[in-house]
Amino acid sequence: MFSHIMIGSNDIERAQRFYDEVLGVIGASAGKRYEHDGLQRVAYRHGGNVFVVTEPINGEPATVGNGDTLGFICSSQEQAQRFHDTSVALGATSVEDEPGVRQTPMGELFLAYVRDPDGHKLCAMYPLEPAA
C-alpha cells in the first residue's frame, strides 16, 4: 500500500542512533545516511518497506502530527516489548497504557506505544489472533 514513510527530525544524528537500535530489534539493518537537496536523511529498508528520517524540506523545525501513529509489526510479544524497552532506554517516552494485550476490532493484539525523541508516536504490534 505504501511506497515509503518519511518523518522529520530536528537532530538526524540522534535520530539515526535511536532508530538504528530500535529498528534493529525487529531485524532492520543500520540506516543509510545520505544528503538530498542539502538535507540530511537516514533511510531504513526491512521486509520490503522503506522508512526515512529527514530534516524538514522547508527549513522549519520538525513537528509531529496530532493523531499520527507509526506502527511496526513484530514477530512476538517479547520482540514488541524489547522494541518498547529499547526505545525508552534511548530517550523515548512510554505513552498510553503499559505494553500488553488489547482486544481491538482487528483482533487480539499485543501493543506497546512510545514517543521517539522528536515526539513521533510509535507502536510495536504483534497480532495474537486475526479479527473475527
Automatic annotation (TrEMBL):
It comes from the Bacteria. PROSITE patterns: VOC. Residues 1-127 form the VOC domain. Pfam families: Glyoxalase. PANTHER family: BLL2941 PROTEIN, GLYOXALASE FAMILY PROTEIN (AFU_ORTHOLOGUE AFUA_5G14830). This is VOC family protein.
